[in-house]
Amino acid sequence: MKTRITELFGIQHPIMCGGMMWLAKPELCAAISNAGGLGNLTAGNYESGSDLGKAIDKTRQLTNKPFCVNVTFMPSVRITKALHEEYFQVCCEQKVAAIEVSGAPLDKYLGPDSVRQANEAGVKLIHKLGSVKHARHAAEVGYDAVIAAGFEEGGHPLDDDVTTMILTPRICESVNVPVISAGGMVDGRSMAAAMVLGAEGIMMASRFIATTECLAHPRIKEELVRRQENDTTLICKTIDLQMRALRNELVSNVLEVEARHGSIEEIIPLMSGERSQKAWENGDVDGAPLAVGQSIGLIKEIVSCRELLDTIVREAEETLANVQRRLQGAVS
Ligand SMILES: Cc1cc2nc3c(=O)[nH]c(=O)nc-3n(C[C@H](O)[C@H](O)[C@H](O)COP(=O)(O)O)c2cc1C
């Protein structure tokens, strides 16, 4: 499959990994890039620009293929604006293939010069967003591509609550830059559907957790295979930080606090990054909010990244051909 996305990044398959706090680290990132996709290193995993720089070096020891760095501009106690600035400078200095920006637009958060700086460094800019308005802005200020991230996605879907099915074609018809579809992308069928809706690539995150190279604890990977599409829910709507996470004990506690209009001070300790980091590592499925999307309903096995990407592309091509055959059969 050749699209503007494969051309833009010089990759084999138009499949990229989304930022994943605590999980998108060098091993997984390199495995995805080595398998022909665009791996993702998530800056927020690192306490300083120099630690991120070391992680970029480590990834480059594991792959000579392009990968991107996710920089999430969201309110955080741990990740200050100064640290965001450091992450951005390191990405430019190290000339990573691309930055996946999320949360707020780079030009508004770090200033318009940052877009020029990335362009001059040869770093492509991809903005993950959830509305046509934001996509138009990104295209106008010079982003190279946008990611249409629908409501199904794990993590923090925009509170417009628009599904991938609607958001992808709306954004495709509204901007000239290539569009990557995200939220519910998990197999060849969803990839084929995204292409039919006008996307030129897909982004997956939840699906990459259940791969052999992801460092999440095996118990959580197995849990994702076991769970279904109705096993996620939205939390933290009441504090304007909506998150889609796996239904578990901790998430029930958060929902209970929210239902009785508990204070933000009660919610924040339940949502601490430290809690999630530990749970992904020690496999405590109930101990933290675990960001995952509705796509878990379609995760059936734990496989290597190479097997996953090869299968998805093959299935997508077969699906597109089968649909055509089916429709022709129905007509004749
Ligand atoms: C475990 C996990 C952590 C995530 N962390 C981030 C993050 O730090 N920054 C970000 O922009 N998106 C984050 N996301 C969202 C993903 O990058 C992506 O947009 C979304 O998961 C795609 O939908 P899917 O879950 O259906 O694949 C995270 C998702 C998951 C599953």
Describe this structure in words.
The protein has 15 helices and ten strands. Helix 3 links the parallel strand 2 and strand 3 (67-72). It has helices at 4-9, 26-34, 49-62, 81-93, 106-109, 113-121, 132-141, 164-172, 188-196, 206-209, 218-226, 249-259, 264-270, 273-282, 305-331; strands at 15-17, 39-42, 67-72, 98-102, 124-129, 145-149, 179-182, 201-204, 232-235, 243-246. The radius of gyration is 19 Å and the shape is globular. It has 332 residues and is an alpha/beta fold. Bound molecules: flavin mononucleotide (FMN). Flavin mononucleotide (FMN) binds next to strand 3, strand 8 and helix 10.
The secondary-structure class comes to alpha/beta
Give the beta-strand count.
10
Question: What composes the largest sheet?
Answer: 8 strands, parallel
Q: Could you name the CATH homologous superfamily of the largest domain?
A: Aldolase class I
Strand content: 5-15%
Portion in helices: 40-55%
Name the CATH architecture of the largest domain. Answer: Alpha-Beta Barrel
CATH C-level label of the largest domain: Alpha Beta
Keywords:
two-stranded antiparallel sheet, 2 domains, TIM Barrel, binds flavin mononucleotide, 8-stranded parallel beta sheet, 45% helix, alpha/beta, 14% strand, 332 residues, 10 strands
